[in-house]
Amino acid sequence: MTEAVPSYLSPTGQEIVFLLLGVLAVGSALLVVTTRQLVHAALWLVVCFGALAGCYLVLTAEFVAWVQVLIYVGAVVVLLLFGIMLTRAPIGRAADLDSGNRAAAAIVALATAAVLVTVVVDGFRTAYAPLDPGRGSAEELGAGIFRTWVLPFEALSVLLLAALVGAIVISRTDIRGRD
Fold first, then answer.
1. Average pLDDT of every residue of the chain
2. Where are the transmembrane segments (predicted)?
3. What's the CA gap between 98 and 40, in Å, rounded?
4. I need a labelling partner for 151 at 20 to 30 A (CA). Which of 5, 20, 62, 104 fits?
């Protein structure tokens, strides 16, 4: 017996929730790059990361969803906000941040999006992957990270620590170099 592939015209509840979370993620990502206030961009980034975590939950990857919330929402966005405060970046609207290339950037972005959507739709037109639980379990991910990817994982942590120390050193005005 062959199993019938579900139609795109009758989506399931999971697919509808995934689609709505995807639209929320794309909309908030657009607001991240189009807003003129830096703090608002960081807050829209929180919404985008939260929607991505919701997508992971729909795909039954609970561990990845919570890591997304803890690391990206809890650490990266807080680090970004601390970076804004430490460097004394302008918090309000700043007219000098606009380069005047919005039309060209919009055309390039739309063309790139059209190409990517066309390639993805054409490549996965007949593909269907059922949502089976267990692929995002902590056991499988831990085995992959700490067996296969342990060296890049540790190198990334050292790189992030060096970036944090560098940001603090650059932002401090009372630290003088030796003459």
1. 79
2. 16-34, 41-59, 65-86, 107-129, 149-170
3. 16
4. 62
